[in-house]
C-alpha cells in the first residue's frame, strides 16, 4: 500500500435476532449498561439507531478474554433495533447490512418459530453468528456471579445446576444441528467458521456477556478483517434504517453508514418508492447525550460521520424514501452512475422481499 493510502478498518456491525421475549432487548441493554458503568466518559457512543462500543471498552468489560493489543478492529457497532424483521430488510450490496449476528435463544424455551425464521435468514445471507443461550440464571439452583465470564461461573455451580443447564444447552445444540449447523459450547469450539459457538449468558446478571463480546471480536478479527477494510475518505455508503418525521426537519433518514464518509452538504442518492431520490444533505444529526425528554433540542449537528456509524440525515424531498434502501454519496463519480447503482441494488432487494 502506498504511504498516502487512507484505507482503514471499520467497526463490524452487529445485529441481535431471536424469538420474542427471549431477551434481545435485555441483552442489548445489558451490554450498553455495563459499558457505561465501566465508568469512563466515551465508554460507548450512542448513535442514531446504533451503539458503538470501542475496543477499549470491550476489553474492560471482557477482562482477560479481550486484550486490546490482540486486535486492530476498532470495536463493535450494535444495531439498536433487534429482531429479524429489521435484519432482513437491512441489506448492503445484496448481503446483510449486519456483518455478524447474535442469535438469542431462551435456554428454557429452546428453538421457537421466530428462532427458525432467524436461522433461515442467517443461512440465506451467509451471516456469521453466535448463539447466546440466554436466561442461564433461571436454571434451578443457579448461583449467580454478576458480570463474570461464563466458564468459571459454570464450573462453580452445583453438579445439579450444571446438569440442568447442560440438558438445555445440548437441546439447543441439537436444534442447531437439525437446522444444519454444527454447534458446540463455545469453549469447545476450535474453528468458529465451521462450528457455531453456543454461549450460556444471562442478560439479567451479565454472566457470559464478556464471553459473548470476546467471541464477536474474535470472529470479526479472524474471519472478516478484509471485509472491514474501507476507504476512509471515500464516498459514504449506507442503508436506511427508518424514514422518520422530525419536528423542524420534516422527513429524515436514520441511516447506518458502512463504508466511506458522509458530510453535511453532500449530494446523495436514496432509494425511493418510485425512483431514486437525489438530494443534498442539510444536516447530519446525532442524539444529544443525556437529552431530557421534554428538552426541545434532541439532536446535535455533526459535520461528518465515517463508517461504521448510525446517523440521522435531514434533507429535502425524503418523503418517498424507503426503509432498507441504499444511500450513496455522490463525490467523484457521475451522478447517473450512482443513480444506476442505487436502482440495481433496490431491484435486488425487491426481488428478495417478493420471494419471502
Ligand atoms: P425480547 O422480546 O427478545 O427483546 O425480550 P426482552 O429483552 O424484552 O425480555 C423478555 C423478558 O425476559 C423480560 O421480562 C426480561 O426481563 C426477561 N429476561 C431477559 N433476559 C433475561 C435473563 O437473562 N434472565 C432472566 N431471569 N430474565 C430475563
From TrEMBL:
Q: Which GO cellular component does the record give, naming just one?
A: cytoplasm
Q: Which residues bind GTP?
A: 18-25, 80-84
- Looking at the record, the residues that make up the Tr-type G domain are 9-225
The protein's superkingdom reads Archaea
* Gene Ontology MF term list: GTP binding; GTPase activity; translation initiation factor activity
- Residues of the region (Disordered) are 134-158
- Tell me which stretches of the chain form a coiled coil: none
Which key words tag this protein in UniProt?
GTP-binding, Initiation factor, Nucleotide-binding, Protein biosynthesis
Query: Member of which family?
Result: Belongs to the TRAFAC class translation factor GTPase superfamily. Classic translation factor GTPase family. IF-2 subfamily.
Q: What does the record give as the function of this protein?
A: Function in general translation initiation by promoting the binding of the formylmethionine-tRNA to ribosomes. Seems to function along with eIF-2.
Record's protein name:
Probable translation initiation factor IF-2
Q: Which residues of the full protein are shown?
A: 1 to 356 of 596
Amino acid at each position: 500500500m502506498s504511504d498516502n493510502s487512507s484505507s482503514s478498518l471499520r467497526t463490524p456491525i452487529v445485529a441481535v435476532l431471536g424469538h420474542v421475549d427471549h431477551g434481545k432487548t435485555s441483552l442489548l441493554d445489558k451490554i450498553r449498561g455495563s459499558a457505561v458503568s465501566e465508568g469512563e466518559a466515551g465508554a460507548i457512543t450512542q448513535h442514531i439507531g446504533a451503539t458503538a462500543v470501542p475496543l477499549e471498552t470491550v476489553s474492560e468489560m471482557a477482562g482477560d478474554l479481550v486484550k486490546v493489543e490482540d486486535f486492530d478492529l476498532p470495536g463493535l457497532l450494535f444495531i439498536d433495533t433487534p429482531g429479524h424483521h429489521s435484519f432482513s430488510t437491512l441489506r448492503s450490496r445484496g448481503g446483510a447490512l449486519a456483518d455478524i449476528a447474535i442469535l438469542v435463544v431462551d435456554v428454557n424455551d429452546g428453538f421457537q418459530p421466530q428462532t427458525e425464521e432467524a436461522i433461515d435468514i442467517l443461512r440465506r445471507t451467509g451471516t456469521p453468528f453466535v448463539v447466546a443461550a440466554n436466561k442461564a440464571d433461571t436454571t434451578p439452583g443457579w448461583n449467580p456471579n454478576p458480570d463474570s465470564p461464563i466458564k468459571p461461573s459454570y464450573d462453580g455451580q452445583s453438579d445439579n445446576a450444571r446438569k440442568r443447564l447442560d440438558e438445555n444447552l445440548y437441546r439447543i445444540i441439537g436444534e442447531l444441528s437439525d437446522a444444519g449447523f454444527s454447534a458446540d459450547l463455545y469453549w469447545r469450539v476450535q474453528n468458529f467458521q465451521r462450528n457455531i459457538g453456543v454461549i450460556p449468558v444471562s442478560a439479567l446478571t451479565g454472566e457470559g456477556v464478556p464471553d459473548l463480546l470476546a467471541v464477536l471480536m474474535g470472529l470479526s478479527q479472524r474471519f472478516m478483517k478484509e471485509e472491514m477494510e474501507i476507504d476512509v475518505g471515500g464516498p459514504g455508503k449506507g442503508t436506511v434504517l427508518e424514514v422518520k418525521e422530525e419536528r423542524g426537519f420534516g422527513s429524515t433518514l436514520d441511516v447506518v453508514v458502512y463504508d466511506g464518509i458522509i458530510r453535511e452538504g453532500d449530494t446523495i442518492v436514496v432509494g425511493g418508492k418510485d425512483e431514486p431520490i437525489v438530494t443534498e444533505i442539510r444536516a447530519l444529526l446525532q442524539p444529544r447525550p443525556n437529552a431530557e425528554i421534554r428538552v426541545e433540542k434532541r439532536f446535535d449537528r455533526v459535520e461528518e460521520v465515517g463508517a461504521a456509524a448510525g446517523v440521522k440525515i435531514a434533507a429535502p424531498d425524503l418523503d418517498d424514501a424507503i426503509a432498507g434502501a441504499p444511500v450513496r454519496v455522490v463525490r467523484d463519480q457521475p451522478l447517473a452512475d450512482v443513480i444506476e447503482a442505487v436502482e440495481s441494488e433496490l431491484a435486488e432487494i425487491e426481488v428478495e422481499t417478493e420471494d419471502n
